[in-house]
Specification:
The chain has two domains: 80 residues, Winged helix-like DNA-binding domain superfamily/Winged helix DNA-binding domain (Arc Repressor Mutant, subunit A), CATH 1.10.10; 154 residues, GntR ligand-binding domain-like (Four Helix Bundle (Hemerythrin (Met), subunit A), Up-down Bundle), CATH 1.20.120. Strands 1-2 form a two-stranded antiparallel sheet. It starts with 28 loop residues before the first helix and ends in a 7-residue tail after the last helix. It has ten helices and two strands.
Length: 259
């Protein structure tokens, strides 16, 4: 097959006239279309908020059918790179960077059985250690105060016997802590791990009251205020190991005993 010709570049305004595409080898179809669009996004030729040309025009530029073009756009939507909006003002829009694709990928691995509770705990301990060490270098007093408010809210929910609210605050704590690193990789990874944790806890149901969690979090916050990374890591690792044992006891119980 002869080499496909490159469409020459055009001025940036309007957006859909600003980038080049190459007609597709029919043996690779929609994956290659999606890859070219990914490249345009990574190179900044398509930016967050930009609206892609209409599906018909894109299909013509790439030299593919509208069905193939639609598959490519759906693949990019599943990857969290674009949003497909309906209606008169709809279309395909480039999204700002987010962890949605990472979270969705980890969730899928969990549902496929590729991630066990043991894997989950190992990852939580390792990632939490990296998060805490970086947080001790970057966390602000305001961020520590927000974590303290989260801990207080979780304790109120525990005393009220509200399992769902307590769990929501406990899980949010880890994401809040990760955000104090201001590192998008650690934030996305933590969000993915916590999504798997949510699914696991949902499957096994309410655990014990976890009376150890509140004092452990208080000690952790004390170490964070002192910027003592090693003591903070040790505290978090101990709490997560204890939590894992609690989860395993609950998961091993007969289904009737979980109610």
């Amino acid at each position: 097959m002869p080499a496909a010709a490159t469409i020459p570049a055009m001025p940036r305004a309007p957006v859909h006239d600003s980038f080049d595409v190459v007609p597709i080898n029919p043996q690779r179809i929609f994956q290659e279309v999606a890859n070219q669009l990914r490249r345009l996004i990574s190179e900044g030729k398509l930016r967050p908020g930009d609206k892609l040309p209409p599906e018909r025009e894109l299909a013509k530029r790439f030299g593919v059918s509208r069905n193939t073009m639609r598959e490519a756009l759906r693949a990019l939507e599943l990857s969290g790179l674009i949003e497909l909006r309906l209606g008169a003002t709809g279309g395909a829009f480039v999204l700002p960077g987010s962890s949605n694709a990472v979270v969705a990928g980890m969730r899928d691995l969990y549902f496929l059985g590729a991630i066990t509770p043991e894997h989950l705990t190992e990852a939580r301990i390792s990632i939490s250690a990296a998060v805490i060490r970086m947080a001790c270098e970057r966390i602000t007093d305001e961020e520590i105060a927000a974590l303290e408010a989260n801990v207080a809210a979780a304790e109120r929910a525990r005393k009220a016997g509200d399992f769902e609210e307590r769990t929501r605050h406990h899980q949010a704590f880890h994401v809040m802590l990760a955000r104090t690193t201001h590192n998008p990789v650690l934030i996305a990874t933590t969000e993915g791990i916590m999504e798997i944790t949510r699914q696991f806890v949902k499957a096994i149901g309410p655990t014990d009251e976890q009376t150890y969690t509140h004092p452990s979090r208080k000690r952790l916050l004390k170490h964070l205020r002192a910027r003592d990374a090693e003591k903070a890591v040790a505290e978090m690792s101990s709490a997560l190991t204890k939590l894992h044992r609690s989860y395993m006891v609950k998961a091993a119980a007969p289904s009737g005993a979980r109610a």
